[in-house]
Write a structure and sequence with these properties.
alpha/beta, seven-stranded mixed β-sheet, 13 helices, about 45% helix
Length: about 260
């Protein structure tokens, strides 16, 4: 290989570097995103926190900080934790703009939390775990840092139980964002959590409509990959098109879940 050809094809970076590279330039877009800033899952979280007497809450994989912003008026202290320093700075800026002075930030991996055992009343994570390199390790860390009587809550896209539908959703997610690892099914979540020492206490399932143009723009998906997603949608079997409610412009609907765990 010549020097010029090597320069035109840089060596692939590791998964965590890929996650940071994809999300850091889009930090403000995730703060402003309607999909992330609003939702019945956040309303449900606020209702759970109201009157619960939560002292310290960890927003694990905080992204644009919407769990932190929801929780801050209802708890004494929020720790917003993310792999991307740009995301964390966007959270700091937005918190200052909202007058929320009880949100701190820390940078790092979900699989290696820099916090003491049993240091949080609640651990909450929203739309983050499908990017983690090792779900089991992240769950074990969440179990380690939550107090014995605490709660661990995950809010995420979940894979459908049928293999055909599962293959479709993983394919479009990966084409849209090459740092995607997996949307886990509810049984996969429950099994992984139990192995980490967490037991399912409650669950709410929902459907999330994603407008195609903004979904693509938010991640700056290259046109060739956006076109591949549209080709998959248009060529999908009718049962896939019906399940995901695929619309003429590519807009579609996914399954989501709020899973509430407690330590064993």
């Amino acid at each position: 290989m010549t020097a010029s050809s090597a320069a035109s094809h840089p060596a692939p970076q590791g998964h965590e570097g890929l996650v940071s590279a994809h999300f850091s330039p889009q930090a403000q877009a995730y703060v402003a995103s309607e999909v992330h800033a609003k939702g019945a899952d956040l309303t449900d979280l606020a209702a759970r926190l109201s009157g619960a007497g939560v002292d310290r809450l960890l927003d694990l994989g905080c992204g644009g900080g919407h769990v932190s912003f929801t929780a801050a008026p209802l708890v004494r202290h929020v720790m917003a934790y993310d792999l991307s320093s740009s995301m964390l700075q966007a959270v700091v800026d937005e918190a200052q703009g909202r007058g929320l002075d009880n949100i701190a930030t820390e940078q790092g991996r979900a699989e290696d939390l820099p916090f003491a055992d049993a240091s949080f009343d609640w651990v909450v994570s929203r739309y983050s775990a499908h990017h983690w390199h090792d779900l089991g390790a992240g769950l074990r860390q969440a179990r380690r840092v939550v107090k014995p009587q605490g709660k661990v809550i995950f809010m995420d896209v979940v894979a459908p139980p049928h293999p055909l539908f599962d293959t479709f959703v993983q394919s479009i997610e990966l084409l849209r964002d090459t740092s995607h690892v997996r949307d886990y099914s509810v049984p996969e979540w429950v099994s992984a959590a139990e192995k980490a020492g967490l037991v399912l206490e409650g669950m709410e399932t929902r459907r999330l409509r994603l407008e195609f143009a903004s979904w693509i723009a938010r991640m700056r998906t290259p046109p060739v990959l956006a076109d591949a997603i549209r080709a998959l949608e248009e060529g999908a079997p009718k049962e896939v098109r019906a399940y995901f409610e695929i619309e003429p412009d590519g807009t579609f609907t996914l399954d989501t879940a709020t899973l509430v765990f407690r330590p064993l």
